[in-house]
Structure formats: C-alpha cells, structure tokens
Amino acid sequence: MINNQNKELINSGKMLPLMEEFYTIQGEGFYTGKAAYFIRIGGCDVGCHWCDVKESWNAKLHPPTNTDIIVENATNLANTVVITGGEPLMWNLDYLTQSLQNNNLKTHIETSGAYPLSGKWDWICLSPKKTKLPLKPIYLEANELKMIIFNKNDFKFAEEQASKVNEKCELFLQPEWSNREKMIPLIVDYVMKNPKWKISLQTHKYLNIP
Ligand code: SF4
Prior knowledge:
Blueprint: H1 4-11, E1 15-25, E2 35-41, E3 64-66, H2 67-77, E4 80-84, H3 94-102, E5 106-111, E6 123-126, H4 136-141, E7 144-149, H5 153-162, E8 170-175, H6 180-193, E9 197-199, H7 203-207
Parallel strand pairs: 2-4, 4-5, 5-6, 6-7, 7-8, 8-9
Antiparallel strand pairs: 1-2, 1-3
Helix pairs in contact: 2-3
Bound molecules: iron/sulfur cluster.
C-alpha cells in the first residue's frame, strides 16, 4: 500500500508501485524481436476501453517497491529495459532510468504521453490515446509513434497524431488485439497506400509469451 511513510520515496522515484517485472522478447513496435526486461508500473487513468492490462489501473493494488532492487534484477539479466504500465509517466522515473543507464542498460518507455516526461531515455515509444491526449512536449521527443487501430476512425486520429511528431519518428499502426481479424486487412491496405507507416503486430501474443 502507498502510505505516508513511503510517499516521499515514491515522489523521489526511489520506490515505485511495481505490478510485475519479467525478462522476455519485445513483441511490438520498432524493437520487435529484441530481448528486454519489462518493468510494469501500476497506475493509469487514461481509460482505454480495450485496455488489456486493466488490472494495472489502480496503483494502490501494486506494492511500492524499492527501485534499487528493480534495477538490480534487470541488470542481472538484460541489456535493455522497457518501462511500461499502466501509464509509467504518472511516476518520477528520473532515479530509475539514471540507475539503469549507470549500469549500462538501454532505457525504453511505452507511454500514452498524458503526463509530463521524466527520466532519461534511449527510446521513447509514444502511443497516444483519444481519452487523454499527450502533452505537447513529448511529440518532439518521441522516437516511435504507435497508433492502436480499433476501428476505421482511428486512421484519421493516427494521421492527426503523426502530424505532431518529429520527422525522424518511426510510425506504426497496430491492430487492437480483440479486433485484429477485422482491422488487419484495412491496415495492410492503408500502409500500402501510405508507406510512411509500418505495421506493428503483438507478436508476443502469437508466440504465447508475456
Ligand atoms: Fe491501458 Fe495503456 Fe490505455 Fe492505460 S494507456 S488504459 S494502460 S492501454
């Protein structure tokens, strides 16, 4: 539980409400196929109706965990770390990412961008959501824009968001998992007509790994 005792440590990033951590293969986006240590931090109020980690939403359910221990666990196994959630930018990630980089780990984040950017990043994957749009500064920092396509209207939203990122940003369209059979043919067609985009698939779900 987050209480007054550890609130201060959480504010300074020395503790984080950890939901889970695991070493696996990055399943989606630019680094698909790369081994990475995933650190999933609890807490999210973005409210995507198709969210596949709704159990992450309530941060109070996830134990405040000593950041040094998380760093040690990652350093023992991996050379790249993906910080995800939930919405990880609800927390101060400066201490976590600095410690990881001090141990020569690459720091990647998956974020909706709805909270101010903290942390030092080797790779920022921005995945904007209509329910709580990204804050302006992160558009220029993003290395990758990953747009989830649930229905036809999402192509328009994807283009709006793509018009805001920097010109080097990699652009991905990813079918929302439960609707993939319907949307994949539309995405294939769209990417052939608009080749600045690439397709991202949740390959970890096909591979049956976390
Ligand atoms: Fe779920 Fe991510 Fe949306 Fe939050 S931003 S509701 S964790 S999909």
